[in-house]
């Protein structure tokens, strides 16, 4: 029971979601991969920590973004290490949202070795020429 409580606390503390003017983060998680269930991407196995430089671990960010207005949107995810240094970035094709509600599921896969100190994932949306931070998540490394 203590392990479950600690895992739940880490998950709550490591995810920051707020709503930008153009979109909001409905959910974000780090997983070992995704599985398709009835046409929707779902996490295979969620991790709240990872082993540093373990080549068998594969980091996949799964995010659900809800748009707040119609028009053209372009999402991106930026990965940084604990020092704020860029690790990787995923950019997605622009989407034209024609009606609300509209939720977009995106995944971003990192295949390199995972750094010590943790990884921060930040989701951005660009709409009307303005890039906004939609939400972020930090995943710590095992000590």
Give an account of the 3D structure.
- This protein is mainly β and 143 residues long.
- It has one domain: Sandwich (Immunoglobulin-like), CATH 2.60.40.3020.
- It is built from one helix and eleven strands, in the order αβββββββββββ.
- The strands form three sheets. Strands 1, 6, 7, 8, 10 and 11 form a six-stranded antiparallel beta sheet that branches. The chain has a three-stranded antiparallel beta sheet with strand order 2-5-9, with no helix packed on it.
- The N terminus is likely disordered.
**Count of strand segments:** 11
- Helix content bin: under 10%
Beta-strand percentage range: over 45%
The radius of gyration over CA amounts to: 15 Å
CATH architecture group name: Sandwich
- CATH topology label: Immunoglobulin-like
- The helix/strand class is mainly beta
Number of helices: 1
| Shape assignment | globular
Biggest β-sheet, characterized? Answer: 6 strands, antiparallel
Name of the CATH class: Mainly Beta
Helices and strands, in order, run as HEEEEEEEEEEE
Task: Tell me the span between the first and last alpha carbons.
Answer: 21 Å
Oligomer: single chain
Total tally of structural domains: 1
Unreliable residue stretches: 1-17
Output mean pLDDT.
82
């Amino acid at each position: 029971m203590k392990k479950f409580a600690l895992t739940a606390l880490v998950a709550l503390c490591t995810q920051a979601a707020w709503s930008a003017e153009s979109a909001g983060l409905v959910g974000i998680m780090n997983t070992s991969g995704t599985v398709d269930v009835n046409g929707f991407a779902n996490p295979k196995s969620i991790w709240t920590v990872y082993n540093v430089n373990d080549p068998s671990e594969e980091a996949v960010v799964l995010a659900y973004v809800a748009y707040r207005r119609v028009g053209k949107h372009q999402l991106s995810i930026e990965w940084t290490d604990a020092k704020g240094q860029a690790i990787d970035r995923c950019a997605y094709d622009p989407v034209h949202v024609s009606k609300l509600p509209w939720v977009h599921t995106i995944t971003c896969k990192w295949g390199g070795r995972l750094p010590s100190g943790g990884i921060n994932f930040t989701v951005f949306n660009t709409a009307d020429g303005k890039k906004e931070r939609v939400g972020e998540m930090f995943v710590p490394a095992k000590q």
